[in-house]
Amino acid sequence: MQSRKKILQEKHYKTIVVSDVHLGTKNSGARQLVRFLKKNSCDTLILNGDIIDGWRLKRSGKWQKKHSRFFRLIINLLDQKKTRIIYIRGNHDDFLDQFIPFTSGKFSIVKDYILESGSMRYYVCHGDIFDLFTSRLGFVAKLGDTVYTFLLWLNRRINRYRIHKGKPYYSFSQAVKHKVKSAVSFISNFENEMCRIARYNMCHGIICGHIHQPANKMIDHIHYMNSGDWVESMTALTEDYQGNWEVYYYIESMPDLSNVVFPEN
């Protein structure tokens, strides 16, 4: 497992990538993301899909003040003209299809993007178009989203009991992902497919989101990176001016920082 870090001081990066914020849902970590972006600035901010959860807003979702604060921060960044912002459409914010491609000043909405990082080329996409269940069986995908929402609901209740008993926070939904063979197989297949697409686009690496599994690793000579999510893992990808990438874990959002229990891969 990669090391986890607290945010202790302000830092400026060349690039920050975040995805899967799911604004409009109860589980969105919008408040933590705003804190992160206020402390960590960048030349280019890539919003890699599922920033707004249009699926949930159509059903039982609710827009909250913390969700609006995120967009106020984005507007402030654009007003300052110091940050280029690239919004890549995901499956939960597929309503953006009617606007793509769109560019105004330093703000763009696109389906995918080629990022130059030193001598490296990265294909940046949300990842949903390569998900068979999302791209061909939309009903099944939305059913899976309902199950995941139930796991997050169950996660909150289990941890209320654990905290009451003096036990550390435990990510039940992550444990299910790591223990269910079909889920493990899906993640592995997803990663391999992403790498194949990177090769097809003549890129050295791939940057995606979608499956809520942060990663930074080499797969068959392709640099695979996943920005994770701002629902559970609270992660971002960061690039410095030497072209070094890392997964940044915002662990201040966890209920118990000293004894957090994470399931092993």
What's the main sheet like? 7 strands, mixed
β content, as a range? 15-25%
Low-pLDDT windows of residues: 1-8, 136-140, 253-265
Broad structural category = alpha/beta
- Counted by DSSP, the helix tally is 7
User: What order do the SSEs take from the amino end to the carboxyl end, as H and E?
Assistant: EHEHHEEEEEHHHHEEEEE
Shape verdict: globular
First CA to last CA: what distance? 8 Å
Q: What share of residues is helical? A: 25-40%
Number-wise, the strands total 12
Strands ordered across the widest β-sheet: 4-5-3-2-1-11-12
Backbone CA Rg: 18 Å
The chain-level mean pLDDT equals 81
Explain what you see.
- The protein is of the alpha/beta class.
- It is built from seven helices and twelve strands.
- The strands form two sheets. The chain has a seven-stranded mixed beta sheet. A five-stranded mixed beta sheet has the order 6-7-8-10-9, with helices on one face.
- Strand 9 (215-219) and strand 10 (222-226) form a beta hairpin.
- Helix 1 runs parallel beside helix 3 (65-80).
- The radius of gyration is 18 Å and the shape is globular.
Q: What is the topological layout?
A:
Layout (H helix, E strand, L loop, with lengths): L10 E8 L11 H10 E9 L5 H5 L6 H16 L3 E5 L13 E3 L2 E4 L2 E5 L2 E5 L7 H4 L2 H27 L7 H8 L1 H20 L4 E4 L6 E5 L2 E5 L8 E5 L5 E5 L16
Helix pairs in contact: 1-3
List keywords for this structure.
265 residues; alpha/beta; seven-stranded mixed sheet; five-stranded mixed sheet; 7 helices; 12 strands; 34% helix; 24% strand; disordered N terminus; disordered C terminus
